TrEMBL record, chain A:
<dbReference type="InterPro" id="IPR003661">
    <property type="entry name" value="HisK_dim/P_dom"/>
</dbReference>
<keyword id="KW-0597">Phosphoprotein</keyword>
<dbReference type="InterPro" id="IPR013767">
    <property type="entry name" value="PAS_fold"/>
</dbReference>
<dbReference type="InterPro" id="IPR036890">
    <property type="entry name" value="HATPase_C_sf"/>
</dbReference>
<feature type="transmembrane region" description="Helical">
    <location>
        <begin position="290"/>
        <end position="315"/>
    </location>
</feature>
<keyword id="KW-0812">Transmembrane</keyword>
<feature type="transmembrane region" description="Helical">
    <location>
        <begin position="14"/>
        <end position="35"/>
    </location>
</feature>
<dbReference type="InterPro" id="IPR003594">
    <property type="entry name" value="HATPase_dom"/>
</dbReference>
<dbReference type="InterPro" id="IPR035965">
    <property type="entry name" value="PAS-like_dom_sf"/>
</dbReference>
UniProtKB/TrEMBL annotation, chain B:
<keyword id="KW-0812">Transmembrane</keyword>
<dbReference type="InterPro" id="IPR028082">
    <property type="entry name" value="Peripla_BP_I"/>
</dbReference>
<protein>
    <recommendedName>
        <fullName>ABC transporter substrate-binding protein</fullName>
    </recommendedName>
</protein>
<keyword id="KW-1133">Transmembrane helix</keyword>
<dbReference type="InterPro" id="IPR007487">
    <property type="entry name" value="ABC_transpt-TYRBP-like"/>
</dbReference>
<keyword id="KW-0472">Membrane</keyword>
<feature type="transmembrane region" description="Helical">
    <location>
        <begin position="7"/>
        <end position="25"/>
    </location>
</feature>
<dbReference type="Pfam" id="PF04392">
    <property type="entry name" value="ABC_sub_bind"/>
</dbReference>
Amino acid sequence: MIFRIPKIKLGNKIALIYFILGFASLIAVNLIWLLPSLTETRKNAATLQLEIAKRGAIEINSFLDYKIGSLENIGPFLRPQEIEKNREILDNFLQKEQVFFEITLIDGTGQERIKVSQFEIFSESELTSRADEEYFQKALGGIFFVSRVFFSEKAEPYLILAIPIYFSPSGTGGVLMAKLKLREMQQIISELKVGSLSHSFVVDGEGRLIADPNLSLVLKNLNLSDLAPVKKIIEKKQIVDGLASEDIYQNDQGQSVLAVGMPLQKLNWGLIIERPEADAYSGLTSKITAFVIIFVLGGLSIFFAARLLAIYLIGPMKKLGDGAKIIGAGNLDYRLNITSGDEIQELAEAFNEMGSQLKESYVYLEHKVDERTRELIAQRDQLDQAVKKLIDRDVVLNEIRKQQEEALLEANKAKSKSEEARIASLNILEDIDESRKAQEDEKNKVEAVLRSLTDGLIMIDQFGWISLINPEAEAMLNVKKENVLLKRLAEIEKADIKKINEAIEKEEGIEKKEIKLDGSPERILEISTALVIGVDKKILGQVIILHDITREKAVEKMKTEFVTITAHQLRTPLSAVKWTLRLILDQDLGPISKEQAETLQKGYQSNERMINLVNDLLNITRIEEGRFIYGLLKISFIDLIKETVDNFQTLADMRNIKIKLQISENDIEIMGDKEKMKLALQNLIENAISYSFSGSDVTISVDCDNMNLTVAIKDKGMGIPENQQKRVFSKFFRADNAVKMETEGSGLGLFLTKNIIEKHGGKIWFESEEGKGSTFYFTLPIAK
Amino acid sequence: MSNKKTFFILTIFLIVLAAVIFLVINQNNGNKQSKVFHVGLLQMASTVNANIDGFKAGMAELGYQEGKNIVYDYKNAEGNIDLINEYAKSFVVQRVDLIFSDTSPATQAAKEATTNSTIPVVFSMVADPLRAGFIASIQSSGNNLTGTSCAYIDIAPKRLEFLKEAFPGIKKVLVFYRPGDKSGEPAYEEIKKAGQKLGVQIIAKPVSKSEEIKEILKNLKPFEVDALMDPADSMVTANVDSLVEASLRLKIPLMMLSDLEAERGATITYGVDYLDLGKQSAALADKILRGTKPAEIPIEMPRTFRIVLNLKVANQIGLTIPENLITRVRAAGVSGGRIIPL
């Protein structure tokens, strides 16, 4: 957008729009009358002024016409030779028409015959000839003559009128010449007013000022022919109508004036009326003033009305807004009371309806909110814990930062020290370079080693964040390093990683734990964890090793299946051989010799061992396949152990081993599978007897407390080498010394026994010292 | 801005605006001249009261209403020179807006009193202001004076002619005058010249005091003179009663100046219309009060000269005025003449 519309309240918008529209209309309407009115006013001012000038011209013409006429009127009464009579006529005329101050009767030859004056007495000897005077000649020619303006000794402007007269009855001619004071014309001019500031004056045919209210100007004999209206009148004999541009000019006082003018044709004079332009166009001023007043008052009124309108319209809307706020603030019982009779009232009613519905919804929502609140509280607690961990981390980071700063400080100190030893350290630098290169090589080697590891490796730092993951781990878990680094296992949304995380959280220091990964084909990882301890014995984190045992599992499964199949296949023939040999040894098929019996007995024993082996294998496979079913019943452990010990009495006697049974309680009952438990006891007792030296004893003790019974089977036999003790409970394991001492054995017995004991809720462990003997312990929960 | 504030401010603004408009309009419609002018009227003698009345009437016609926008301070010296000077000075002290003086002595006093002042003076009833030294020229006084001349010096010959025309048998005319009087002496000179043209002997009697006029008249014998004539000397004019008495006693016509003298017994008068001259002077005063300087206003001559025939007195002294003259006077109209009947 080129410009942004500022935010304006609706009431102000309405008022503004109304104001703009109303104001524009007001201006437009007023301009419609004002503009033509201004033109009309100008024209009217000039027209009025011209009318006055016309009236003045008529008056002046009338004045002169009257005066000439009055002269003409006495003509017929004059007699050529009746001097005194004529004098009397002239005296009477002069006394009556005192605007004339001198009259002379001139005969046809130009000789003055009678001369009368207001002031002087003329004797006959003072009368002269006027034959050469222009006025006489023109008047005698039959045309009345009007002279230019003269000024008397008394500074009175006057002109000479000369008219032809015809003496009756002779009809001869003469001239009557009269001097006419122009005071009356002065009076006419003075009374020609347009407004109070106008100025009228008369100029003659040469542009000289001959009449002006200010007589002193007339006496100055001013020539005004340079003025445009004067020029127009005397040169072109045109009316000056005041509408031309040259009709407005600056007068001799520097005032801008509007001039109109009328030519006085008979006299070749011009009447001009000047009026100050401001005065002439005062009508304009008043119209413009009226316009401005209308403009201002109208504008204010419109503004006023606009505000009222806005208040009228916005009032209910404001009420609506306020009410909505109150309802929105939670007061759902509040109801709007608007009776504007329009859509706003409808809207208010709708709001009220909405308020009622909201209230109903509110109760329902409150209940929901409570539930959600509880959930959120729980989440909040979790977040608090996370935050606490973050804070701890921040504290640790600050500590690290401090340590880094201290280290930096130390480094700076070292740097300054190294500067002193710079020369000496050049060689060292070379070594350092080599060392650094070696370190880099080492680092690269480490990285290479990590990359070349066939197992996956994940490093968790002391804060629980993944700080390292090798490519193999990435591949195993189908993740990218950059997506998991600096995250916690729990934060990573992958099912496999969650499984790893669960496993880690359940127990520390996982030895080996199998995790089946999601996806196809099936993958099984064996995870191991170990703490990473720094040189200062600080725990730097934890490393998780992911070993892909999918193939091994597959191989084991195949092996198990093979063993199972083989065992099953072998069992029948072995049973058959056993039965056959038994028959022969029992001489059910005929007598046999001692040598035959010894040989067959060896065969029978070997077959028994094979059968035991096959049974063990089958048990192992059942355990591994989860088919080693336990039927737990309340059994008497004391009875069981006694029974088992009895079974091995013959073997013990053969080996010159004494079995001691130490039982604290008369009876202890457990929840167990009798057969399976018997098998476990058999394995332990058989091992104790088999790996004991001749003449030693095997002590079997049974203790119990409120919860568990504890059995200890102690022998004083070869013991188990320390370096092989960890593998004692592994499948097919037999210690080297055991193998030397007893060439027979499957190595499955303790594996089975451990499984059985653990399945019964117990634990099994041992203590052993090579050459001194072993003590195997196990516990079992007492049946309640 | 709250709605209430808006309304309040608007209301106050509209009231103020209306008041301003009202005041402006009223100011424009007010009187042209709101000032009250103070005009001093300086009169030498009551014989020219009509001139003062004409001045005031003329001012009234021009919009100056006594007591409203103009105040007159009237001072009549009744012929006392010292008093007229004192009155003139008092007007200056009072700082009047204008002094109107009629007759030469009053004008002289006003001129001297305003020597160091700018108070304008409009004079009237001055026979020859130029010869009197009041002005530099007719066109422009060059000072703070202007006014109307009564032109008595100019019409002096005509006055003698009228006297001769009214009473054709007169041969000797007695004329009193004060030597040195700015009006009387030059008028006498003109009368003397005119007498030569008309075949009338002018018997000049230079006087300096009214007592002298009385004394001369008292001692005047019948047929010593044929007529008496006031040359237009204010002192002579002031002695109208003495002259009338002599006129009646000696049964000789008396020529004076105005209606007033005719009403007091002069046989014939020819002079200016005091009232009209006063009005004519008012027009000049109006220009001055509107701002024009006196020096910019030329001195004006009378618009009208008036002849009055006192038929009653003529009859008393056994004289008959020719009918044509009477006709002329009648035809001259109210402004041009007057007949005091038998």
